[in-house]
Amino acid sequence: MIWHALLHIPAGLWKRLKGSQADTTPQNEVNLTAFMGRWYEQARFENTFEHGLDDVYSDYYSIGDERFRVINNGTDARGKPHRAQGMGSRTTNSQQGALQVSFVPPFCWFAAPFHILYTDADYREALIAGSGGHYLWLLTREQHPAPPRIRQLMEEARKRGFDTSALRRTTHRPQNRQSIPTDT
To answer: Nearest CA to 116 among 24, 19, 15?
Structure first.
């Protein structure tokens, strides 16, 4: 985990220095409780900490009103499972989707921006980015959503200035379906 963080920090700094024209303004009026639960990644900008992973999904659990726990799961090309656990919180006490997440214990330092850019009214799909527009995730509650849902997320990303041609589609194999955990 420490080596992962040491490799990730320089890559993130380099990307931040390069800059991006994408709009990463968080959505207003995000209900953090409604956001909790399981999300399946449908596409992402490839990054060092998820490189080559498929079957990617994340589980979010509330810890009080403004904090949450996140567990990211995926499998590599050989089918080997990968898991990362982290903690997150709102960056302010507002209802905005400006969050921060840390996967580096003790979780109180090096928290990265995690902006909820868009959710539909029912919290069935979401567009997430880091600050600067270098990280982007398209998430849905369904493992295999209907194509119009993906097109809607792609269109939202394009409207915000993201290069959607750089997105890596995430494959979800049927044999890797996981049940939603009931514990918190």
So the answer is: 24
Chain centroid offset of residue 4 CA: 17
CB 73, CB 81: distance < 8 Å: yes
The pTM (predicted TM-score) of the whole model is 0.83
Give Dmax (Cα) for the chain: 43
How far out from the chain centre does Cα 53 lie?
Answer: 14
- Per residue in 126-144, pLDDT (tens digit) is 999 987 888 999 999 999 9
Helices in 19-167 by DSSP H: which ranges?
32-35, 147-159
Q: In the chain, where do the E strands start and end? A: 37-45, 54-63, 67-75, 81-90, 98-102, 112-119, 125-129, 136-140, 167-169
Q: Is the dihedral of CA 127, 20, 82, 168 positive or negative?
A: positive
CATH H-level superfamily of 2-10+23-174: Calycin beta-barrel core domain (2.40.128.20)
Query: Measured between alpha carbons, how far is 154 from 157 in angstroms, rounded to an integer?
Result: 5
Quote the CA–CA distance of 110 and 61 in Å, as a whole number: 20
- pLDDT of the residue at 175: 61
Angstrom distance (rounded) from CA 118 to CA 116: 6
Q: Tokens for 146, please give them.
A: 């209907």
